[in-house]
Amino acid sequence: MNRVRDWLEQARADLAHAEKSLQMGDHAWACFAAQQAAAMAAKAAHAPGAGRLGPFGDPTAGHSAAPGAPRRRPAGKAKVLDKHYIPTRYPNAHPVGPAYSAYTEDEAGQAVALAREVVEFCEREGLVD
Fold first, then answer.
1. Total of domains in the chain
2. CA-CA 20 to 30 A from 43: which of 3, 6, 109, 115?
3. Would you say 1 and 41 are in contact if contact means Cβ atoms under 8 Å apart?
4. Calpha distance 29→20 (Å, rounded)
5. Residue 65 confidence class, pLDDT cut points 50, 70, 90
6. Do residues 114 and 34 make contact, with C-beta atoms less than 8 angstroms apart?
7. What is the CATH number of the domain that holds 43?
C-alpha cells in the first residue's frame, strides 16, 4: 500500500501545529512539532511510491528528519531540527528547570522556518503527482 500522501499530510498537519504553537508562545512545542513535520516529510519522500528521492530504506524506521539523507535533500536543516526531538520534552535534558522554559521565540521561529523548507522541498522534489 502506498502511504506517501498520508505521511505528507501528517507533515503538513505537524507544520501547522508548529506554527500555531509559535503564535501562542509555546516555543518548546513549536520546536518539537517542527521536527516532527520535517521527519514526516522525509518519510513521505523516502517511502515506496515516492518520486525522485525515494524509496530510501524503511520510511517508518526511526524518528529522524534526516535518515540517510540524499545529497539534494536539505539534510543540514533536518539535522538542526533533530536536535529538538528529545530536549523539548524532557527536563533532564537541561541543567535546571522544566524543558519548556529552555526555548526562546527566536529558536522556535528558526525551527518552524527550517521545517517549512524541508516540507516544501520534499513536496516539490520527492513525490509523484
1. 1
2. 109
3. no
4. 10
5. low
6. yes
7. 1.20.120.330
Q: What is the Cα–Cα distance from 24 to 98, expressed in whole angstroms? A: 18
C-alpha cell belonging to residue 75? 539534510
Residues 1-41 have pLDDT tens digits of 778 889 999 999 999 999 999 999 999 999 999 999 999 99
* DSSP secondary structure letter of residue 70: -
pLDDT digits (tens, 9 = 90+) for 81-126: 999 999 999 999 999 999 999 999 999 999 999 999 999 988 887 6
The mean per-residue pLDDT over the stretch 47-70 comes to 54
SS3 79: helix
Q: Which of 99, 58, 64 is closest to 85 using CA atoms?
A: 64
Burial class (CB in 10 A: 0-12, 13-18, 19+), 30: buried
Type of residue found at 99: A
